[in-house]
């Protein structure tokens, strides 16, 4: 619909105004009237979209303003009253047709048209009606014309003074709310030109870039939404604003399912530069905010968890080099000290063992059961998420950073008060998962209490190990040598004097309960995949293996146990799942794939599985694979790409013949060892024996006794 703004320098004649309004409405237009008149002079029955009396608005500004305006000529008086009126200027920006009803209003219409370049600017009712008719008859032409004139050209912006640049860019900014403009190539190009125009102040440029980026994203130009923020950052001198814009550009890039590694590195390097400057000035709060931004940019889920590669796994030292060079990061990770070393095992009474975690106790049940019945141990369990006092403290990662930098003294006092009863009671605290629970427990001096932290795999690809006070940890436990190597490369302080003792102990698993009779000889054609809830499991690799198997024998099928991918995790996860669902749409109807979903009785489900597959790009240990092997399924392990070729990998964790490099090698191993029932039975019996004698809890429990009790 066309919007018409009428400007009156003198009170309009009622009959003429009424007749004009009827014609405008008949042409499909809405009409707003402003001018030098009293509101009472206008018939209330005219049904105007808007009415603004400049006379009354001037009076509201005060007597001095009225006197000053009264001395001006008629045209200047109208403009002086309209220029500072926010409502009138907003109406002028929205109008499609600007109409001067008399000679005194012409100057004001001309001034408004300098800002609203897409509007028709006319003098008189007849030209206004003609403009409305033209717009109604040729909507496409005027839509394109409006898009091309929505923003000022870079050349115009370059010729303006600083004050004019502010005004022009400010007007442009308010126009950026229309995604329709951004859908046109001309509109998007024009806006990118405005963002990088010279003489635009940094703060206004940043505001403009953010609005344009949002509008581009809504208009379907998501790559443009990233580029416009990056462009603005390159033309911004203010270090803080530049870092903020780069961070927003990197996040926008990730949100569209893409990762420009160079952009993201520039973003966290810029954030670290700001953190160092703030830390040097004693601004712990600001430095922590910048460090938090840098760390979240370096450890986004989409890059390390919802991707088939990880720059951290490829080159930990190179990837984290900017952090190691940062003074603020060095201060945050510096030794915190403790008043006393951990005491030895007590004599004359049981060892008091506190087992704690934040929310995830999946791997603790065998440990808790063992020491609940141990005569030499008194055990307690604490889930920090369930503790009303500790939960909010553990969630404050940025506050922990600020405290480590010398700020937030209240956090230290609160953590001390909340944790001291637990630390005073316990001889040893066993923290499962190196996340916020480990960071919280090392926020305070543990005194003589021994702190043991276990790291699985997830944590190595997060910032949490960097927030942990390493000099307050006595023992750091890994579930695999390959994870230990990665974390030591990421945290070189683990090689220095005073570092925690490092241990490698497999997960606690009761493997004997998986030893059940298989359902029959045909079971050997069922290839099992357990747990596919994350991209790292790479089920599409398993489907490649399946296709190769079915080229040889269509009796082979893939049985998937567990929930599907979490599509809400990230755009990268959705992109992977889109490809996976396309694959499944081809295979599932033929019976080649069966999706069983989650089950509480995995041992029973495994009685139908003859081959157990690990298709992952990374694992800490892969309990599901070992459980499958213990059940009598043939183990086939992809040489996990995150660790392949390194000193420790899947090839050093499992027997060499279990591990393959490619889907072709996996298919060849399966075909060779399932060709006959005899071959299959022999191979699976050997694998089950190895699993039970190497990783069953009856074996691993002794390693925990040695760790916790010194037995």
Low-confidence runs (pLDDT<50, min 5 residues)? 152-161
Task: Identify the overall geometry.
Answer: elongated
Question: What class would the helix/strand composition place it in?
Answer: alpha/beta
Amount of helix: 40-55%
Number of strands: 17
Strand content: 5-15%
What is the terminal separation in angstroms? 84 Å
Profile the largest sheet: 6 strands, parallel
Number of helices: 37
Strand order of the largest sheet: 7-6-8-9-10-11
On the 0-100 scale, what is the average pLDDT?
90
* Cα radius of gyration in angstroms: 35 Å
Question: What is the element layout, followed by pairings?
Answer:
Elements: E1 2-8, H1 14-26, E2 29-35, E3 50-53, H2 54-60, H3 63-70, H4 74-83, H5 86-94, E4 97-100, H6 106-115, E5 120-123, H7 125-137, H8 139-149, H9 154-159, H10 162-175, H11 179-183, H12 185-195, H13 202-218, H14 222-234, H15 239-255, H16 261-280, H17 284-298, H18 301-304, H19 311-314, H20 316-319, H21 321-324, H22 327-332, E6 351-357, H23 365-372, E7 377-383, H24 390-394, H25 397-404, H26 409-425, E8 428-432, H27 436-441, E9 450-455, H28 464-467, E10 475-478, H29 481-490, E11 501-504, E12 526-530, H30 539-552, E13 557-561, H31 571-587, E14 593-597, H32 602-606, E15 611-614, H33 623-630, E16 634-638, H34 650-653, E17 659-660, H35 663-673, H36 677-695, H37 697-709
Parallel strand pairs: 1-2, 1-4, 2-3, 4-5, 6-7, 6-8, 8-9, 9-10, 10-11, 12-13, 12-15, 13-14, 15-16, 16-17
Helix pairs in contact: 4-6, 10-13, 12-13, 13-14, 14-15, 15-16, 16-17, 17-25, 30-35, 33-36, 36-37
